[in-house]
Amino acid sequence: MGKFDKYKIDLKGMQEDVAKYEFLLDNLYFANIDAPEVQKGKVNVQLTVKKTAHAFEFTFQTEGMVWVPCDRCLDDMEQPVSSTDKLMVKFGHEYAEEADNLIVIPEEEGEINVAWFMYEFVALAIPMKHVHAPGKCNKAMTSKLNKHMRVAADENDEMDFGLGTAEPLGEEDTPIDPRWNDLKKILDNN
Question: Are 99 and 83 in contact (CB under 8 A)?
Answer without folding.
Answer: no
